[in-house]
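A favour, since you know our C-alpha cells better than I do. Go ahead and set the record down below.
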Amino acid sequence: MGSFVPVAMAAELVCTRWTPLVLRELLAGSTRFNDLRKGVPRMSPALLSKRLKELEEAGIIERRRDTAGDGHDYHLTQPGRDLWPVVEALGIWGQRWLETRVSLRNLDPSLLMWDMRRNLNPTPMPARRSTIQFLYPELQPSQQNWWLVVEPGVGTDLCSSNPGFEVDLYVETDLRTMTAIWMGLATVEEEVRAGRLQLSGHGGLRRAMQRWLGLSVFARERKLAA
C-alpha cells in the first residue's frame, strides 16, 4: 500500500473542493482573477482566493504583477503545467462514463457561454465583426440573453447586456439543448430538425454554426455510459 502514498499526497492538494476546476481554468489560459471567477461561477470569491493561495504555496502557480501594474495575474509553473494530463483524464472519463442525465444536471448559462466564447472558431465566419445573440426563454430574465461579439484579429467578447451592435444571428433554444450540442451529445442540424433550436439571420452564420461554435474540448469523446 505504500506505493499509493504519492496518490494520497497529491489528492490532498489538488482534489479539494473546486480545485480541479480552478486548475482547468488556469490550464485553459485564464490568468486574471475575474476570468477565473467566470470559469467557476458558483465558487465564492473568498474561496477562490484561498485556493489560489494554496496553489501558490504549493508551487503550482506563481503570482505576477500584471502589465498595467495595478493588480496580479496567476501563471502555472512547470509542476502546474504537468497537471494537464490529470485534468484532461478527468474530463475524458466524465465525457465517456457519466450518464447523460447526470452530465446535463445543474446547468449554468454563464459557464456554458464562457466556454463557448473561449473555444469559438472564427475561421468559418465573415471577415468582419459578427454579433450572435443567444436567447434561453426558460431562464430568469437576468440570464436569458447573451451576446458573442467576434472581431477578426481582435478576439471574442461575451456580453450579458446588449453591446449595442446590430445582431447578425439570433439563436433561440433551451439551456439543456445548447449544452448537449456543446458537449457533442447532439448537433446543430439535429436540434434544428427537432424544433429545439431556432436560428434566424445571416445565412452563412446559420449554415456554418456547427463549425464555428465553441464546443467542449471533450466533445469528440464518445459517450460510453448507458
In short: The radius of gyration is 19 Å. The longest strand covers residues 145-151. Strands lie at 61-65, 72-76, 130-135, 145-151, 155-159, 169-173, 197-201.
